[in-house]
């Protein structure tokens, strides 16, 4: 059970790395677009330098940005050129009929692949069968059109476990901290979480109440 940060923001990533719970980083073209306009390669290099500064060789997902399979492969090979010195690099490729051949080719080239934009058990199974190291299920988007996201994750976990499939299930598209709990309960190996949720994941009003009461009682005792 691991927590990844779903962000390309250097400050957000560093705040998470400082706290020791971050086991990986996922980006995608939309997440990148939230950053100040900059050179894509330079920005990914900055993320890698940050991870190396924290002595982390944790997985970093970098997504191709094309619909054309040959271009996807070209981009992935270019990413390896540019970032391949980072042992945690994995290439994000969306699920799709033509994309399966991209996954297979990248695996033949010895690269780690995160097959993303999966919304169903069958997509996850096909991605794993093509050799994807990670399969990313989009919790929020599955639920957006009324499907039971918990069931999709739970059934994928059950099938992977019973079939001995080693691909790791990443659950993304988190919209609420309950999604994090539910994804882990459904059997996700990894939940990748937008940083805005991290403080919420450790907060509770009764925690604040207890801590404040302890300090008050102690202070009162000392001042008796
Ligand atoms: C994982 O990294 C996904 O790309 C990400 O969680 C998608 O989130 P969204 O559905 O909110 O765009």
Radius of gyration: 20 Å
Tell me the helix content.
40-55%
Major sheet strand order = 1-2-3-4-5-6-7-8
Principal-axes shape call? globular
Straight-line N-to-C gap: 47 Å
Q: Could you tell me the number of beta strands?
A: 8
Q: Could you give a short description of this structure?
A:
By secondary structure, the chain is of the alpha/beta class.
Explain what you see.
The protein has 224 residues and is of the alpha/beta class. The chain has a single domain (2-222), classed as TIM Barrel (Alpha-Beta Barrel). It has 11 helices and 8 strands. The protein has helices at residues 10-18, 29-33, 40-53, 69-83, 97-108, 121-129, 139-144, 149-163, 177-186, 198-201, 205-222, and strands spanning 2-6, 22-26, 60-63, 89-94, 113-118, 134-138, 168-172, 190-193. Strands 1-2-3-4-5-6-7-8 form an 8-stranded parallel beta barrel, surrounded by 6 helices. Helix 4 packs parallel to helix 5 (97-108), helix 6 packs parallel to helix 8 and helix 8 packs parallel to helix 9 (177-186). The longest helix has 18 residues, at 205-222. It is globular, with a radius of gyration of 20 Å. The protein starts with a strand and ends with a helix. The relative contact order is 0.12. The mean pLDDT is 97. The chain binds erythose-4-phosphate (E4P). Residues 6, 26, 28, 30, 116, 136, 138, 140-141, 172-173, 192 line the site of erythose-4-phosphate.
């Amino acid at each position: 059970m691991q927590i990844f940060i779903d962000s390309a923001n250097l400050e957000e990533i560093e705040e998470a790395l400082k706290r020791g719970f971050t086991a990986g980083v996922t980006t995608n073209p939309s997440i990148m677009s939230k950053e100040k306009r900059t050179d894509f390669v330079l920005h990914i290099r900055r993320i890698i330098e940050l991870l190396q500064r924290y002595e982390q060789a944790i997985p970093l997902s970098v997504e191709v940005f094309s619909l054309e399979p040959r271009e996807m492969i070209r981009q992935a090979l270019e990413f390896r050129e540019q970032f391949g010195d980072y042992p945690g690099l994995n290439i994000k490729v969306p699920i799709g009929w033509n994309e399966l051949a991209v996954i297979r080719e990248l695996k033949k080239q010895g690269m780690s692949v995160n097959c993303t934009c999966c919304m169903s058990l069958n997509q996850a199974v096909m991605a794993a069968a093509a050799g994807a190291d990670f399969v990313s299920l989009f919790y929020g988007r599955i639920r957006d059109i009324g499907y039971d996201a918990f069931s999709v994750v739970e059934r994928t976990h059950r099938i992977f476990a019973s079939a001995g499939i080693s691909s790791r299930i990443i659950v993304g598209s988190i919209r609420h901290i309950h999604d994090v709990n539910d994804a882990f309960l459904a059997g996700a190996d990894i939940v990748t979480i937008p940083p805005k949720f991290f403080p919420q994941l450790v907060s509770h009003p009764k925690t604040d109440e207890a801590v404040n009461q302890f300090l008050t009682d102690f202070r009162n005792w000392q001042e008796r």
